[in-house]
Write a structure and sequence with these properties.
Blueprint (H helix, E strand, L loop, with lengths): L4 E2 L4 H8 L4 H13 L11 H8 L3 H14 L1 H6 L13 H11 L12 H10 L8 H10 L18 H15 L8 E19 L8 E19 L4 E7 L4 H14 L6 E5 L8 H6 L2 H9 L1 E5 L9 H12 L8 H17 L10 H9 L1
Parallel strand pairs: 1-3, 2-5, 5-6
Antiparallel strand pairs: 2-3, 3-4
Helix pairs in contact: 2-4, 6-7, 7-8
């Protein structure tokens, strides 16, 4: 049987897999190491051999190989987080009783209400023969009651002053009217897996047409830089082979060239380790680095607050409309991205940002 997904590990990936210790991850790592078709390997095990040695099913082997080829070594090793949500319709009376239970004293012998205790109490009150924990959890979340959970990644607790200060600075920029002398530009980046596809003919017998099998192979990864000016409806995409300080500095230099007449470019971005002023001095002469830095004012989104960056919205649109397919080389990624960029710029598609400082403060007060 022809293998559909071909695994070729880099030296860093092999070392990463060999350092895994958790049981399920160990099995996934052994699958990848056994399937590795690198030049140094003297023998590549078949799926049947791997299944017999590890005492696992063939489907698991194919799934691990597919995840490696399409999404990289970490997803192949760890899998995806569960996203399945069980929906159960409930009425307002059900929700009101659940909220009332959550706000009351817990039963004797317990220090708090667990989801299971809440569900059992609802059964005692006559809401069906059984109530699942998931149903109780969904109703609590709808009413913004989240026991044992502090959601600091989206809106932080009141004492997280660093987050609030950085957030309000970004939101204040989004309120400013358009000014070509001081354009507000947002910048973000994301990796893109390069996946090759090979069509292999398989003979079906005399007088019958060929049948084709497809084999997929990961051919590296590239980096997608995105810059957008939300008020002007313009965006600029650049594809690079790597994600280094030099690559970032080169991208920022190109942004500067797009705004030659601007007095100062206000650049909103996250605080990634490569997004730092010293990157210019590593990539260029001190004189050129100073000239570039003088053209920008850097505004960083707060930690865990990259959702405040409108360039992340544009990246999601790019990935969904253009790059959500198998592409095996960086040249085609660049061509497709450039075509998408021109079409979207011609439409002057802007970002309708609705989240304001006042709304943020209301949520913080809650």
């Amino acid at each position: 049987m022809q293998a559909k997904y071909r695994v070729t590990l880099s030296e860093d990936e092999r070392q990463y897999l060999q350092g895994v210790h958790k049981s399920q991850k160990v099995i996934n790592a052994l699958i990848l190491l056994s399937c590795d078709s690198g030049d140094y390997q003297t023998h590549k095990s078949t799926n049947e051999e791997i299944a017999n040695i590890l005492n696992i099913g063939m489907k698991r082997i194919d799934l691990v190989k597919q995840r490696f080829v399409e999404e990289g070594v970490k997803i192949a090793l760890n899998g995806h987080k569960g996203k399945r949500v069980y929906d159960r319709k409930v009425d307002g009376d059900f929700g009101a009783h659940l909220v009332a239970i959550s706000c009351s004293e817990p039963p004797h012998g317990f220090t708090r209400w667990s989801l299971r205790l809440r569900a059992d109490r609802l059964v005692e009150l006559g809401y069906g023969q059984s109530v699942s924990d998931e149903t109780a959890k969904k109703v609590l979340e709808k009413n913004e009651i989240k026991p044992r959970q502090s959601q600091t990644w989206l809106i932080p607790p009141e004492q997280d002053s660093d987050f609030v200060a950085a957030m309000e600075k970004v939101l204040e920029l989004y309120k400013m009217p358009y000014n070509s002398a001081f354009p507000v530009v947002c910048m973000d980046e994301s990796p893109k897996q390069l996946i090759g596809e090979t069509k292999i003919p398989i003979a079906q017998g005399k007088g019958r047409p060929y049948r084709y099998e497809y084999e997929y192979e990961r051919r590296g990864v590239c980096n997608v830089f995105m810059a957008n000016e939300p008020l002007a409806g313009k965006r600029y995409v650049k594809i690079s082979e790597r994600k280094t300080k030099a690559d970032w500095a080169s991208f920022i230099e190109e942004i500067a060239s797009l705004y030659e007449k601007a007095e100062k470019i206000i650049l909103v971005m996250d605080d990634d380790g490569t997004h730092v002023p010293d990157a210019f001095y590593e990539a260029y002469t001190p004189e050129k680095a100073k000239r570039l830095l003088d053209r920008f004012e850097f505004v960083y989104t707060p930690k865990h607050g990259n959702w405040l960056n409108t360039a992340e919205i544009e990246l999601n649109v790019l990935m969904g409309q253009c790059l959500n397919k198998r592409i095996d080389n960086i040249e085609d990624v660049s061509l497709d991205s450039r075509a998408w960029q021109e079409l979207r710029n011609n439409k002057n598609a802007t970002v309708d940002w609705q989240f304001s400082i006042d709304q943020a403060r209301i949520k913080l007060k809650r």
